[in-house]
Amino acid sequence: MSTYVQVCEDENEEPMELPLEVDGGLLLSTVVGQFPGASGVKYRSSSSAFRGVRLLDGVLHLPEDGWNNVFICVFPKENKRKSDDVLESLSKTKRMEKYHKCSDLIVLGLPWKTTEQQLREYFESFGEVLMAQVKKDVKTGQSKGFGFIRFGRYESQLRVLAQRHNIDGRTCDVKIPNSKDGSGQPLSSKIFVGRCTENITADDMRTFFSQFGEVTDVFIPKPFRAFGFVTFLDPNVAQVLCGEDHIIKGTSIHISSAAPKQDSRMGGPFGRGGGGGGGG
Question: Where is the RRM domain (predicted)?
Answer without folding.
Answer: 103-181, 189-260
